[in-house]
Amino acid sequence: MQLLSYFVRSMNVDQLFLFLAGDYKMMPAATKGIALYEVFLHPQTVARISSGRLLPQKDMRLANEIEKLTAAYLEHQNWQPSRAERADGASGGQVEPGSIEPGSIEPVQGDSVQDQPVGIDSVGIDSVSNDLERVDDQRPLVPLPANYLFDAVVTDLRLVTAAKLAEKQEQYDPGKTPTENLPGGAMNEAQRRFVDQIWVPKIRPYLVSAGFRSIASVA
Q1: What CA dihedral angle connects 46, 48, 53 and 59, to 10 degrees?
Q2: Fewer CB atoms inside 10 A, N or C side of the chain?
Q3: Helix (H, G, I), strand (E, B), or coil: what is residue 104?
Q4: What stretches of 79-210 show up as alpha helix (H) in DSSP?
């Protein structure tokens, strides 16, 4: 994680994206895919990667896939059962007023009401649970995105940044802190602003909440 912290403090968003894209490929999820695109690939993001050859506005294929994925995710999150479904799910076998014919209820057997067993079945809990599960089963599903969704972008970015990354890794001294590895041994104003005003309060929490928990302490 020291090297990741170095990438953050040096504002090397290319390598941050490549690391997280590897995480996504091993365990893809809709939230991860959407977050990766919005943070690193969206045309207006402040952390956009350096190679845009396969990104909007030059190439809209990935953007179109993310748009469909986002729509499915929002449909799932915002879904509400119809009035009929809510009524059916909430009834749980309860008696509606006026629905029982006079004299149709058999008398209670035993000395008193307290003698009668009161269990789950007697109050219709199973029925309520089954009805609610049936309603929730109708919630639109979020499709599992392909684990190769970002492969083309990753391959292109690696080609573009390979020489630069090799140079950085050769210069990086694991015996020093990430900050000490920066030129001059300290963050400049732009780097400090990126870490303090963008990465820590905005980008990192969003990525962690999307499922990239391995970077929760990277700063």
Answers
A1: -70
A2: N
A3: coil
A4: 83-91, 125-136, 151-171, 189-193, 204-210
User: CA-to-CA distance for 188 and 214, rounded, in angstroms?
Assistant: 26
pLDDT in tens, 108-146: 334 433 333 333 333 333 443 444 444 456 788 888 999
pTM: 0.74
**Helix (H) and strand (E) counts in the chain:** 9, 0
Name the residue ranges covered by the structural domains of the chain: 2-78+146-215, 80-92+118-138
Integer-rounded Cα Rg, in Å, for the chain is 28
Helix (H) or strand (E) holding 154: helix 151-171
| DSSP state string for 135-155 | HHTTSPPPPPPPTTTTHHHHH
> CB–CB of 157/51 below 8 Å?
yes
- pLDDT tens-digit series, residues 129-138: 444 444 456 7
